[in-house]
Amino acid sequence: MTALLQVFFDALSLGSLYALGALGIALIFGVMRLVNFAHGDYIAFCVFAMLWPSIDAAAIVFLGNLPAWVLIPVILVLGAGISVLSEILVFRRFRNANPATMMIASFALGFVIKYFLLMLYSSRPKSIDLWSAVSLPLEIFGARIPLLQVITIAVTLVILLGLVLFLKHTRYGLEMRAAAENFTMARMLGIRANTVIMMAFALSGMLAAAVGLILATQSGTADIQMGANLMLVAFVATVVGGLGSLPGAVFAGFLIGGLSSLMQAYLPPDARPFRDAFVYGAVIFMLIWRPNGLFTQKSAKQRV
Amino acid sequence: MSLLVVDHVSVSYGRLKALRDASFAMGEGETLFITGPNGAGKSTLLKAIAGVVTPRQGEIMLAGHAIGGKSPEAIARMGFSMVPEGRHVFGTLSIEENLRLGTGMRTDKDAAERDLEQIYAIFPVLKERKDKPAGLLSGGQQQMLVIGRALMAAPRLIAIDEPSLGLAPKVIDDVYVALLKLRDTRGLTLLIVEQSATRAMMTGGRMILLRSGEVALEGDARELARSDALRNAYFGIEEH
After folding, report:
1. Do B84 and A185 touch (CB under 8 A)?
2. Domain residue ranges of chain A, discontinuous segments joined by +
3. CA–CA separation, A125 and A127 (whole Å)
4. What is the nearest CA distance from A177 to chain B, expressed in angstroms?
5. For A132-149, b where at least 16 C-beta lie within 10 A, e where not — what string?
6. CATH annotation of B2-235
7. pLDDT for A61-82, tens place per residue?
8. Which residues, in sequence order, are CB contacts of B222 under 8 Å at separation 6+?
9. Cys staple from A59: which of A126, A264, B27, B170, with CB 3.0 to 4.6 Å?
10. How far is CA A214 from CA A51, A227, A241, A260, in A?
11. Predicted ipTM?
12. CA torsion sign, A231 to A175 to A184 to B125?
């Protein structure tokens, strides 16, 4: 029972990270059909922003010294900032390009950010000690659950709830949903393309920042690759969920996280190193079964 | 003064000339039909006015302002409301959300609420199902929804591309009855692309025939629809 509970929390907290990552990608894809591979590098950028630029092995904490109630908003703003900036400087010029061109542009931008960080901080992973108190275990029904996992899940639920409220009950949310479904028609109704797209980038950047904060606290290290690995899983989740579908991205994020944790816990020990192969094998079967993803909206189809 | 002036406008898609040197004007309160065979450039003309495609040559003026090269949202905010071909409801949004999307640029929120009630009064089926996803409506109901949505912007000019496309004759009647009622109660200026000359006869107003991207004929809709000139021009038979 306690082992089961532990696996359950592992699954939910890993799924939370994947869901937040997938949501960040799906938001942008929805409004401009761009798969933004630089998203993972926004995550790394937000983490490294907490350190002072230096190539020494020992990390010099910079923003990370701020109290949490200042640090969190600052990092969120930084995430939104780099995301919006990349829209203005890069993606805006590709507005009418085909999706493949935009994707390549996002790869290129990702490399620019990555090497910018590399130059400032060197490629060595650095230890970063954020809120070490939250890694203490918590006793829930006899199971020892790291407090951080509980916080991760709670934070994710709050973010998801906030996003739903924003999308369902504000004018900007309404415009974003409309633009995601039919951008040209939305513009013909007077909805400003640039405003909606910048809003989507800002939200997506804040999600990257949130993921960065959680990852840094969890792993205690700042690694240039940290966002890219998560980004790959998150991208797979958006495809599994149905590209452009926000509930699909969240659901598939939790699904892949859950599957991954379950396999880690219950596969025979010899097979555990190949866990990812099993997970992605399942993804392949899923896509053969439903090539358009799990959530293809029936009501979105045109009627004649 | 003319509300809309299309002045020697040409549009090309690559090497294909979709619209050649088209010119016409329409005044406030007028109903203008644009008709013509498939590929005559009717939809292209509306898209050029809406700012979805950019004219290669010529100028389009809305209420005295040049709108060539402006973005679709800027043109919409100048009082042009477009109902494109194929309806384009936002299927995942509720019916009421679809209608409210049109009001983004309005500052008179009270008047917008009254307009919403008026649209619900004309299309009661929309009110009954206002919280349902718009994608669940039938084709005819979707057509009514997009007309209602265009009206919610309180436009000076409303353009409708093929309102009868893919609808049953009975449903087309309903759509036109509602449209005429709206025109007469609210003094709408209507620009309608329509293949069917009988609809133009029912409605009255002026008519323009496009053929191969050019304005081939222009005149009173009822007279033109009755005359041989329309049929001849439609099929490209020169008069002797």
Report:
1. yes
2. 2-300
3. 7
4. 8
5. eebeeeeeeeebebbebb
6. 3.40.50.300
7. 777 777 888 889 999 999 999 9
8. B200, B201, B204
9. A126
10. 16, 12, 23, 19
11. 0.89
12. positive
